[in-house]
Amino acid sequence: MKKLLGQTALYGLTTVIIRLFPFVINPIITRSFGPTAYSPFADFYSVAGVIAVILTHGMETTFFRFSLDEKDDRKLISTSFFSVLVVTLVYLFFTLLYRQPLATAFRTPDQVDLLTILAVTLALDAFCAMPFVMLRKNERPLKYAAIRITNGVINFLLVVFFIALLPRYPEGIFGLKYNPEFGIGYVFVANLVASTATFLMLFKEILITRIKYFSYELWKKMIKYSWPITIAGLAGIINETFDRQFLKFLLPEEIGRHQLGVYGGVAKVVTFVILFRQAYSLGIEPFFFSNSKNANAKLMYVRLMDIFVAVNCLIVLFLSVNLDWIAKGYIQNPEYYEGIPILPILFFASLFLGIYLNLSIWYKLTDKTIIGAYISTIGVLITIGINFYFIPKYGYWASTWATIASYFAMMVISYVWGQYRYPIPYNVYKNSVIILITMLVSLASYQYLREKIWLGNLIFLILATILLKTENLIPQKILNKLGGK
Q1: How many other CB atoms are found less than 10 A from the CB of residue 301?
Q2: Read out DSSP for 462-483?
Q3: Contact of 375 with 232, CB cutoff 8 Å
Q4: How far, CA to CA in Å, does 119 sit from each of 14, 103, 116, 340?
Q5: pLDDT confidence of 289, banded at 50, 70, 90?
Q6: Are residues 198 and 65 in the same domain?
Q7: Are residues 233 and 115 in the same domain?
Q8: Would you say residue 6 has pLDDT above 70?
Q9: ∠ CA 410-414-416, rounded to 5°
Q10: Quick check: 92 and 123 in contact, CB under 8 A?
């Protein structure tokens, strides 16, 4: 547990920091661009996640799984790196060759430049995926953190320069003049420069790989393990971001662009919840695999689930109680405020997804990753069905309910299936009560206590104290001081 906390704190802090950069960048963008002007950013990057999953095709998780048995690290890293490299080069070649037809099919024929910039950016990010895994495997967290944070700093500073600073100087800065027609495209440029810098900083790790160490036999085994992870990853991204495409294609063009912009801009507030989940996941995945053969492994999984649910519920409860001022203070553009009411639902959708990711350890440990693909596919079908049928009438509200319905179904299916194939005695009743209380208080606070924030926060503090004490998350020294000991 101490080792897990150390890993989670180290990689988690890095994850929080790098996620904070785009999180802080978003208000700059929403303040400068209305929903329609913002929509190309939400539009293209909703597809970027799908492409990123295809390019890495599960090799990061697969690497950690095979590192348990494969003693030759050079063969393992070279095989996984060249697998990603070949797929990425093929993708980049055909994307650049057919960029105009792709832009037209994407209903963005006038944004070929943005598509090209994004294609190169995603390729560079894919090239860096396995070198980052090498740093984690070789326990070099400081370099990992330094490169990740540098990427975020470069991206942030360039967005501030292009979007907030450059427009103030009509005569230009350093020979650069702001072009209003390019607008949101400057954000794409900032991402490209940051990804290029990251690639250069990881070049030493890339050079370690050698084609002579590539093993076709090992690659076949890795692909057999990784392709279901890829399907599950694709399904996850489709559940998370592809509803933007439904909004674009199922609504009249002008309305679709507006709703796409509002939904994409407001949904960024969910990052408050996502930060903890991602920090936790980075530390937990290697820990799950490395401790899977311990006698008390299942008891540790139960305890970790309890902690995960408790902390997430506290985060969601605090955000919901203070949602009105937090969301408006973050977005800073009244054109987006109409979308704020969807946020409590998206918070709980993110919670259900996090629980599902915790539950998914059973099919990874038993090498049944195909089951993850089955479950995620069910989630995708729910997402597509609800979006397709209800978006024409309800717009982004349909996307919101589709998200929570999909993640809830995946969570329940994974638990039931897992208890049959790899039973873990999770505290289902206790955690369900905690989640239900959190949902009721969160929704009631947002609906009825927006004008009485003090009362909502008082309720939060009372529930937080009870929950932290019940889960033994308050250090004993603090309890002793509070008790006068």
Answers
A1: 23
A2: HHHHHHHHHTT-S-HHHHHHHT
A3: yes
A4: 26, 12, 5, 32
A5: low
A6: yes
A7: yes
A8: no
A9: 120
A10: yes
Asked if residue 247 lies in contact with residue 389, where contact means CB atoms within 8 angstroms, the answer is: no
Task: Report if residue 268 sits inside a domain.
Answer: yes
> Is 126 found in the same domain as 221?
yes
CA distance 480 to 485: 5
- Residue type at position 198: T
- Average per-residue pLDDT in the chain? 84
Q: Nearest Cα to 377, choosing from 387, 367, 385?
A: 385
Indicate if the pLDDT at residue 479 is higher than 50: no
**For the segment 33-77, what is each residue's pLDDT rounded down to a tens digit?**
999 888 888 888 888 989 999 999 888 888 877 776 767 678 888
Q: CB neighbours (10 Å) of residue 448?
A: 11
Q: Does 270 map to a domain?
A: yes
CA gap 358, 425 in Å, rounded = 13
**In this structure, are residues 407 and 352 in contact, taking their beta carbons and an 8 Å threshold?**
yes
Q: Looking at 207, 241, 275, which one is the last position of a domain?
A: 241
Q: How many CB atoms lie within 10 A of CB 354?
A: 23
Q: Which two tokens stand for residue 185?
A: 């495209």
Give the span between the Cα atoms of 357 and 225, in whole angstroms.
18
One domain for residues 343 and 412: yes
287: Cβ contacts below 8 Å, ≥ 6 apart = 3, 4, 7
Q: Is residue 138 part of a domain?
A: yes
Calpha distance 256→245 (Å, rounded): 9
- Please give the share of the chain, as a percent, with pLDDT higher than 90: 33
Residue 17 CA to its chain's centroid (Å): 14
- Centroid of chain to Cα 456: 29
Is 358 in the same domain as 466? yes
Identify the CA nearest to 163 among candidates 181, 187, 128: 187
Between CA 382 and CA 67 the distance in angstroms is: 35
Same domain, yes or no, for 154 and 278? no
Task: Please state the φ and ψ torsions of residue 210, each to the nearest 5 degrees.
Answer: -135, 135
Distance, CA of 249 to CA of 4 (rounded, Å):
44
Instruction: Record the tokens describing residue 296, joined without a space.
Output: 């008390």
Query: DSSP letters of 311-353?
Result: HHHHHHHHHHHTHHHHHHHHH--GGGGGGGGGHHHHHHHHHHH
Which of 215, 241, 267 is the endpoint of a domain? 241
Domain extent, residue 333, equals: 255-485
How many domains are there within the chain?
Answer: 2
Residue 231 covered by a domain: yes
Note whether 221 and 330 are same-domain residues: no
- pLDDT interval class at 345 (50, 70, 90): very high
Amino acid identity at 53: V
DSSP 96-121: HHTHHHHHHHTT-TT-HHHHHHHHHH
Is residue 193 within 8 A of residue 121, CB to CB? The reply is no
Q: Which residues contact 295 (CB under 8 A, 6 or more apart)?
A: none
User: In terms of domains, do 325 and 231 share one?
Assistant: no
